[in-house]
Amino acid sequence: MKFVIPGEPTGKGRPRVVNIGGHARAFTPEKTASYENLIKLEFERQGGCHLGKSEIVMRIRAFYAIPKGDSRIKREAKLAGSVRPVKKPDCDNVIKIVADALNGLAYDDDCQIVAVSCEKWFGEEPRVEVEIGIAD
To answer: What does pTM read for this prediction?
Structure first.
């Protein structure tokens, strides 16, 4: 199954810790929570279904926007894939936010993921393409 998350790729943010009444409390940053909700909404909207307790494989392709100030030659090189994004978020953080968001929705727990790949590209439209399926 494949679905697309529109917009610039976002990575999993680190939990923030605050001291409330002498007790440390951890919370998820707002940007992370919003992006996880977007992932869930797009998964459901695009016909995603629960894969049960199976072993899961996941492929992620993150497409970053091309800066407006790039020359025509630079732009063409980026679209052709000869220049790839070397910028944040890191692939591991993109994987983490997608895998966590799909917990309980596409599968019971992200520990079921037995193989994952992530690629970073430039594209006309920033987005994240996610393919998930049952391992062979």
So the answer is: 0.88
